[in-house]
Amino acid sequence: MKISVRDLQVSFGDLRVLDGVSFDVAPGEFVSILGPSGSGKSTLFQVLAGLLEPDAGRVEAASSAYMPQKDLLFPWRTVLDNTTLGLEVAGMPRRAARAKAGALFEPFGLSGFEHSRPDELSGGMRQRAALLRTVVQDRDVLLLDEPFGALDSLTRTAMQEWLDEMRARFGWTVLLITHDVREAVYLSDRVLVLSPRPARVVHERTIDLPHPREVTAAAAVEVELRGALR
Amino acid sequence: MKISVRDLQVSFGDLRVLDGVSFDVAPGEFVSILGPSGSGKSTLFQVLAGLLEPDAGRVEAASSAYMPQKDLLFPWRTVLDNTTLGLEVAGMPRRAARAKAGALFEPFGLSGFEHSRPDELSGGMRQRAALLRTVVQDRDVLLLDEPFGALDSLTRTAMQEWLDEMRARFGWTVLLITHDVREAVYLSDRVLVLSPRPARVVHERTIDLPHPREVTAAAAVEVELRGALR
Amino acid sequence: MTATLERPPAAARPVPRRPARWAPPVVVIALLLVGWQLGVTLSGVAPQVLPSPLRVVEQGWANRAALWTNTLPTLQVTAVGFALSLAVGWVLATAVDFSPWLRRALLPLMIASQTLPIIAIAPLMILWFGFGLLPKVLVIALVTFFPIVVGLVEGFARTDREASNLLRSMGASRWTEFRYVRLPGALPSFFTALRIGITYAVTGAIFAEYVGAQAGLGIFMNQQKNSFRTDLVLAAVGVSAVITLALFALTFLVQRLVAPWIRR
Amino acid sequence: MTATLERPPAAARPVPRRPARWAPPVVVIALLLVGWQLGVTLSGVAPQVLPSPLRVVEQGWANRAALWTNTLPTLQVTAVGFALSLAVGWVLATAVDFSPWLRRALLPLMIASQTLPIIAIAPLMILWFGFGLLPKVLVIALVTFFPIVVGLVEGFARTDREASNLLRSMGASRWTEFRYVRLPGALPSFFTALRIGITYAVTGAIFAEYVGAQAGLGIFMNQQKNSFRTDLVLAAVGVSAVITLALFALTFLVQRLVAPWIRR
Amino acid sequence: SAGSGGSGPETGQKIRVALDWTPNTNHSGLFVAQREGWFAQAGLDVEFLPYNSTSPDTLVGSGAAEFGISFQDSFTYSKGAGADITSVMAILQHWATEIAVKADRADIQSPKDLDGKTYGGFGAPYEVPKMQQVIKDAGGTGDFTSVTLGTSAYEALYAGQVDFTEPFVAWEGIEAQLRGEPLKSFRYTDFGFPDAYNVLLIGHSPWLAAHPEAARAFVQAAQRGYQLAADDPARAAQDLQDANPGAFTEPELVTRSQDMLAKDYLKDAQGRVGPQTLDRWQGFSGFLVDSGTVVDANGQPLRARPDFATWFTNDYLGQPT
Ligand SMILES: Nc1ncnc2c1ncn2[C@@H]1O[C@H](COP(=O)(O)OP(=O)(O)OP(=O)(O)O)[C@@H](O)[C@H]1O
Ligand SMILES: Nc1ncnc2c1ncn2[C@@H]1O[C@H](COP(=O)(O)OP(=O)(O)OP(=O)(O)O)[C@@H](O)[C@H]1O
Ligand SMILES: [Mg+2]
Ligand SMILES: [Mg+2]
Question: What integer pLDDT is reported at residue C175 of this predicted model?
């Protein structure tokens, strides 16, 4: 198992957020997490990334690259240097890191903005830069918190296809938080649906369709999941 | 006309962003703006809100309530006091402003978080608080920059319905930036599609269906608009 | 990393408990004092040059009445002077924030004011303001208003442009924008500067007494120095250190009351 | 608001042009000087009490050789002392940022160090370090390191928790986190503190010369004061004001080089 | 006469006195007169200005004080620069400072051995010319290094950082003995250097002219105070300490200092307290003017010796009893 969560409980003061969440993620699996706003999805990721100590429960998680919901680009670094951050931290020489991240600017639709300051980017461009910073780290496990939320459908589809291809190529294990049911169905091997706060896993659906998927083929699954979200 | 834009041009340095954008919005009209990420939608709003001087063109815009793409909740104010900001600036006594904004916490799914600090909210909750801060101002014109981007479908539908109802009741004029074509079709009287940067209006579609709309009835329009976004 | 954790529900966060919080300064200060005491005892240095800490405490206690009598006026002057300094600092920083013209006109003057050596202006102060509270208060204000102004001015200037834009989109006047965004946004920077300023306030007061005073810790130090009583000079230094530490701690209290949202 | 605007494409932003930028301080300083000159001329006050600015300039010019000879050592001491102060400030602030234990142990000591009156420590300084460069450098460091430390410590402490989290999620060590987030995040606060500190540096140097010096602006002021040459004292004050203003301006230059992203 | 018109001084005449330092034995006569009630008996309301760093010459010269403590050397410079002050009484009749070196300095037997040595001084303009002259008078060249140290000079001397300095024998000198740091000292006059009134009582000249009766009353009360200090130093020391509670934590220093002043410094050759002579003024102040370091109000060195007779007066002193 790349990730194993058992009976996870997290509270903020009196506010119980996670109330016994349990699931596993196998190596190479792509699992999406759906759930109402404020249910505790980002909180779950923080625990998985080792940033928050749970009140109770058992968590085993392989080292992961984490893309938080906020883009958190640093104003003191150019866009390119923001995207090399994880590589630099991992000890890659700056020049190599720049070459590696720079190669992704084209597919991410950011070319020409390598040397801009982050506050010169649009919202969607910031989000793509943050995603780039995450995936370029080449970790086995990706934790992506709403990576496509601020993208138009065309850009979004392009990014989804890129991710689908990459994870097939490199065997990445991906955990994805999204509000887009269609996106979850399109990308995932399995979808977990969380209840409203305090969150538990209320529905689990394995999706066994071949990749790349046709939207129409997955329509039934989509309806089922929408139902589970009610 | 509540809003009239003629031949609007905006550049940042050498980067031409808006390249002759023209459109009008009639009183009470609900107009959605679609366009690729980074095309200049937020830039357009900044000009309409009077925060950015265009390089050329003619803009007439009635006083509006503006919801920026970033939520911009102030850490030194509670969530409730963040939502009363516009009312206080307009001179409403604090007590009355709190009562007025506080009444919206229930429909916005924020009750119980009135006295939390903003960084204790989830991403979607922050977005709803920012929307609340905007609509509670009761201005004639609303400029909403991706107000529902971080919401799950259920919460999103509830917020959309609330907005649809309110603008019918109070005759608000609404300009909405969104990446969700279905959302645009569901809510708008008219949809404008912007080209990639430098942006121009490349498509305009009036939607004459009765409210509230059935998703299926609008499917044809949705397909047309997706085509225009290619 | 493959982390495994299994913990019972825990209500309390791991905040260091009381003894742990107070231990570090106590340990270090105790070590310093013991080292000092040993150094003095072993080297046999004359107490006029460097008295032992025990002697300082003992003699300070023996002269506690005189110390106390001289502490009160210093405290009073410090309080009044620093209050004036705060008032002046806020007024100047606010004015300068509203008018770039004033900013350019006043900033060089304010910087220049910091280079006035008391030795050069003391005679003028006395001739103009006599020997009352006023000249001392002015010296303290002169010594301490500058950090306040710089902290505020830079705090104001670093306000998020997008936050200002939001306020302007609400139709806020410059003054409203100031009140709702720039002012709270500058508070972290202000409190940093306040801590710097208040540290100089007590030293400033002692210094100000050189301009002319009947009593005060500065006068006491000077008298004792002229009587070659280094131990009593150091006892007075100790008193002023305690006052400064207390004022410094007070700023955290005020900050927690005024701006509880500032993360530390 | 119904705004109408029709403008030709404009390349240039409205930046105040050169004369406008320099006008405010020049106007204000000119007004002050004229008022001072008139006041002195009309009141007929003795030049020992308050010389006219013309006299200050004239006598300062007449004694420019002596002023220059005494400016050089002060500049040298300021540079070395402030460099030491910066080094000490950074080391202490960094140490304190890494260890809460050290923070609690050292902060009270550092505050206390700010209450040491030079009068009390000058003799010790002389005994221990002679009257070469060292004791003066130490006095300047003592006077100016504290703002640096406070500015840095508070800058570090205000780092966005989520930014730190991001770095930790990348597997960053505490040191890497410091280098990538806390350090750049504290720079705005550091530059504010730097401006406060550097303003005290020249005054500190002049002050330090009282500890013992052969030459320097402080020595010059003291000599001229003892010769009742208030005009020359003020001429020296003018020189130190110019130095301080230049150093203050320099901080903005350094900031633009080191941290161009800091918005002003 | 002008001002009060020759009748006795108006009762409650306010008189402000500026001291040069924290209270010490140089001031004892003033505090004696106050403690014994002699100022009050003369109808004077005397206020000692609080400690301040402003030179009494400046305070008295500008009228911020009516009287003050000064020194013949600093007086020479401020008077030269145009300060409106007059010396009304010599408090110490001789130099009370001497060149001091550590007692164990076998290499220094005379001021002439100070050539090439380091002087720890106070930043006054007259120090270097005076030291140079004394060294020359003793047969040296007068070349030495000067470091400005202020009151740290003594510590620097004890620590061997400087070779010589200029202490008040009746204060720092005694303290050195009490501390066990024996000093060896050289009197300037032993080598032919002119003597001087080390400590003076000075008045604001316009005020003196306008209030001759009050001036006379004040100076005579002060003179009487110093007379008592000269005759009964123990009582003077007590009065000094009583007048300044808490200021003296070293009683032995005060009494021994007072004894020394009474024995050697307060009285002139005729045993009188207070009077000044033109000779003395011409000797030392003349030397300073000749050295070219005394400047006028415009910063130009005084070219010719002024008429020193106008700088001081014995007119306000009481007749010798
Ligand atoms: N630091 C915090 N302190 C207190 N409460 C918090 C904190 N962080 C999150 N919460 C609360 O925990 C709950 C879950 O938050 P979380 O961010 O995990 O939601 P989410 O599922 O990611 O929602 P969204 O889809 O809106 O991003 C929310 O009610 C939020 O108010
Ligand atoms: N302050 C700025 N300085 C320089 N360039 C800017 C600035 N703001 C925006 N831009 C550029 O203008 C272009 C349009 O930005 P804008 O934010 O309007 O896009 P958008 O259509 O809102 O995109 P998104 O859907 O991603 O939010 C982008 O290429 C961006 O890099
Ligand atoms: Mg979330
Ligand atoms: Mg945008």
Answer: 94
Range of the domain at D198: 74-258
Rounded to an integer, what is the distance from CA B219 to the centroid of its chain?
23
Question: Which residues from E are below 8 Å from C65, CB to CB?
Answer: 246
Q: How far is the CA of E198 from the centre of ligand 3 (A)?
A: 84
pLDDT tens digits, B13-55: 999 999 999 999 999 999 999 999 999 999 999 999 999 999 9
> Cβ-count burial of E122 within 10 angstroms (0-12 exposed, 13-18 middle, 19+ buried)?
middle
Query: Cβ of D90: how many Cβ atoms within 10 Å?
Result: 16
Chains D and C are in contact, defined as 3 or more C-beta pairs closer than 8 angstroms: yes
Which residues of chain A neighbour D155 with C-beta distances below 8 Å?
A: none
Closest chain C residue to D242, measured at CA: C112
- B contact test, residue of C167, C168, C169, C191 with most B CBs within 10 A: C169
Q: DSSP secondary-structure letter at B84?
A: T
B4 backbone φψ class: left, alpha, beta (φ>0; ψ -120 to 50): beta
Cβ-nearest to C4 among A9, A55, A58? A58
The gap between the terminal CA atoms of chain E, to the nearest Å, is 26
With beta carbons less than 8 A apart as the criterion, state whether D78 and D201 touch: yes
Closest partner residue to B49 (CB to CB) among C169, C180, C187 is: C169
> Does the CB atom of residue B35 touch ligand 2 within 6 A?
yes
Give tens-digit pLDDT for A16-38: 999 999 999 999 999 999 999 99
Report the residue among A16, A18, A41, A177 best suited for mutation to probe ligand 1: largest number of ligand atoms under 8 A from its CB. Answer: A41
Quick one: pLDDT at residue A215?
65
Q: Extract the tokens encoding B218.
A: 């609008």
Report the pLDDT value the prediction gives residue E7, as an integer from 0 to 100: 42
pLDDT at D228: 76
Residue C132 burial (10 A CB sphere; 0-12, 13-18, 19+) = exposed
Q: How many domains are there within chain D? A: 1
pLDDT confidence of residue E51: 75
Is E252 in contact with E178 (CB distance < 8 Å)?
Answer: yes
Q: Is some CB atom of chain E closer than 8 A to the CB atom of D225?
A: yes
Has residue B215 got a pLDDT over 70?
A: no
Phi and psi dihedrals of A143, rounded to 5? Answer: -110, 105
pLDDT at residue D8 greater than cutoff 70: no
Give φ, ψ of C228 to 5 degrees.
65, 30
| CA pair distance B68, A148, nearest whole angstrom | 18
Residue C221: CATH number of its domain: 1.10.3720.10
Lowest pLDDT segment from A188-202, C88-102, D27-41, D209-223: D209-223
| Higher-scoring residue by pLDDT: E36, A218 | E36
In a domain, D31, yes or no: no
High-pLDDT (> 70) share of chain E, %: 96
Report the nearest atom of ligand 2 relative to the CA of A122.
17
Q: Please report the domains of chain B, with CATH numbers, ordered by start residue.
A: 1-63+140-230 (3.40.50.300), 74-139 (no CATH)
Q: Is residue D29 part of a domain?
A: no
Q: What span, in angstroms and rounded, lies between the C-alpha atoms of D97 and E220?
A: 68
pLDDT at residue A39 greater than cutoff 80: yes
Residue C66: inside a domain: no
D40 in a domain, yes or no? Answer: no
- Determine the 3-state secondary structure of E111 from DSSP: helix
pLDDT at C3: 42
Q: At CA A164, angle to CA A160 and CA A167, rounded to 5?
A: 135
- For chain D positions 57-96, those within 8 Å of chain C (CB to CB) are none
**Encoding tokens for residue D178?**
């410091």
Residue D131 has its nearest CB partner, among E78, E124, E161, at E161
**Nearest atom in ligand 2 to B41's CA:** 21
Rounded to two decimals, the pTM is: 0.89
Cβ atoms within 10 Å, residue C95: 12
Please provide the distance, in angstroms rounded to a whole number, between the alpha carbons at the two ends of chain B. Answer: 30
